[in-house]
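Lecture 7 notes: from sequence to structure.
We start with the chain below.
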Amino acid sequence: MGISASQFNKFLFFKLPSAYWCGVRVKSIDAQKCETSVKFKWINQNPFNSMYFAVQAMAAELATGALVTNAIRSSGEPVSMLVASNKSSFSKKAVGRITFTCSDGEKIQQAVDEAILTNQGVTCWMQTVAVNDKGEQVSVMDFEWTLKRRQR
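Predicted structure tokens for the same chain:
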């Protein structure tokens, strides 16, 4: 069984308070897709009157990481997860409410299954696309997750 959006938001409050106080929230999650969002406000601004890139990165990483967490949890096996690298591309100022969507649930489930089956480290690139209230693309962020089955 997967983790709900409200459970992730509670987790943010206790384990990632900087993301929580900046306004990052999980909007929805299922086995295939995760949506997070954050609204531009004083606490997450940069000097150019838009959202600080690191706040966007927190929301984007959470969209991918929540899918990774769900895939691991549904496997029932102990699997470690870690971001190895990331790439970002910004195309528009982030103002208003920004929604981050990752639809790589199937891809990460296959990677988790491979890590469990082979007992080897596996990497998987996942992408998050961010759009503003008008549906205009603001940024695209890619995260390379590494997965490895832990020994019991």
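Points to note: The chain has a mean pLDDT of 95. The CA atoms of residues 72 and 101 lie 19 Å apart.
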